[in-house]
Write a structure and sequence with these properties.
Layout: E1 3-7, E2 10-12, E3 18-25, E4 32-39, E5 46-51, E6 58-60, E7 68-73, E8 78-83, E9 92-100, H1 101-104, E10 118-119, E11 123-127
Parallel strand pairs: 2-11
Antiparallel strand pairs: 1-3, 3-8, 4-5, 4-9, 5-6, 7-8, 9-10, 9-11
Length: 129
């Protein structure tokens, strides 16, 4: 059974950092795209970042470029989202999602949530002073 476990959220002051983790089970990362989405109260879910396989090409929404870094550790079957320079507008529930690369190639950078078949439970990130 494919499962994703997201963790690492919390409360942080503006300018602070958090690292989110997405632990995968039931499949290996080398054939899947893994993405992070977020949803703030009253707003639509939006794609934040994703990483392709097996080449580990990364993609980011413009609002997080230069602040967030996505990476994967195949040995641990885990994908990370390092978030630096956090802003209040980054406050949201963050979800990791997975899908076979064939489902998202070549439009992987468009962050279409309908392409993703497996979702984690979400982790809350709150940026506030």
């Amino acid at each position: 059974e494919v499962q994703l476990q997201a963790s690492g959220g919390g409360l942080v002051q503006p300018g602070g950092s958090l690292r989110l983790s997405c632990a995968a089970s039931g499949f290996t990362l080398d054939s899947y795209a893994i993405a992070w989405f977020r949803q703030a109260p009253g707003k639509e879910r939006e794609g934040v970042s994703c990483i392709s396989s097996p080449d580990s090409t990364t993609y980011y929404v413009d609002s997080v470029k230069g602040r967030f870094t996505i990476s994967g550790d195949n040995a641990k079957n885990t994908v990370y989202l390092q978030m630096n320079g956090l802003k209040p507008e980054d406050t949201a529930v963050y979800y990791c999602a997975a899908t076979l690369m064939i489902r998202v190639w070549p439009t992987i950078g468009t962050f279409d949530s309908d392409d993703y078949d497996h979702w984690g439970q979400g982790t809350q990130v709150t940026v506030s002073s």
